[in-house]
C-alpha cells in the first residue's frame, strides 16, 4: 500500500505530535482509500505512527485497471502538493489503557529548549574524550538549574534539553542561569521559550507547542534567550524581567508570523 503522511514539522527532534495520514492502495480496477488523524512518536528510523481514532475508509470502483491506475496517480499527485511525504511501514492503532479508554490529559506549561551553538566544531576541536567530559559537565549544570527553578526535564535532543515550567518567569530565570553556568565551560547556548497547551498521551507529551518552541530557539543567536508573545503575555505585571521586541518572524513549518522578544540581561 502506498502511504502518504502529512506531518509538517517532521524535521523537529521532539517526539510526539498529531497530524494527518492518507493512504491509497490499488487492487485491479478498485482503489481503496484510508485517511484520518495520526500521532507520531520518535524521529528518523525509529519513528512510529498510530491512528488516534479509527480511520475513514472508501472504495472507488473504476471499471478497469487502467482507470484505477490513473485515479491513483492523480490522487497521489494532488496530495504531494500539500506537504505529504512517503511513509514506510504500517500505521498501527494506538493501544488503549487497561480501563478501555485512552489516557489523555491536557496541560499548560512554559516550554524551554536550550541548544549548544557550534557543538560540532567544538567537538572536533576537543576530541571525543574531552568533549564527552565537557558534555557531562554541561548536562550536570543544566539539570542543577532546572532543579533550582523547579523545571521538569522532558527529553534531551543531541546536545539540547527540553523542559517545562509552571510559570514563565521561572523558565526565563532558569534559561539565563544556564547561560551563565555553561559559559564557564567555554560553551555558548541559544534558548527559546514558548507557552502553550499539550496533551499527555500514554505517558508522553504531545503537542504543537513543543515544535513552536523549537522554532523560536532556532531564531536565537549565541547567548540569546528568545521568548514568544505567549510567554510575554503570561508574565506577571510586577515581573522584573526585561524583554525587548525582537520583531516579527516566520517560524519554519508554523502558520502565520510570530512576534518574538529577547530577554535583556
From TrEMBL:
UniProt GO BP: cyclic nucleotide biosynthetic process; intracellular signal transduction
Domain Guanylate cyclase, first and last residues per copy: 110-217
SUPFAM superfamilies according to UniProt: Nucleotide cyclase
One GO MF term: adenylate cyclase activity
InterPro entries xrefs: A/G_cyclase, Adenylyl/Guanylyl_Cyclase_3/4, Nucleotide_cyclase
Gene3D superfamilies linked to this entry: Nucleotide cyclase (3.30.70.1230)
Protein name, UniProt field: Adenylate/guanylate cyclase domain-containing protein
Species of the source: Bradyrhizobium rifense
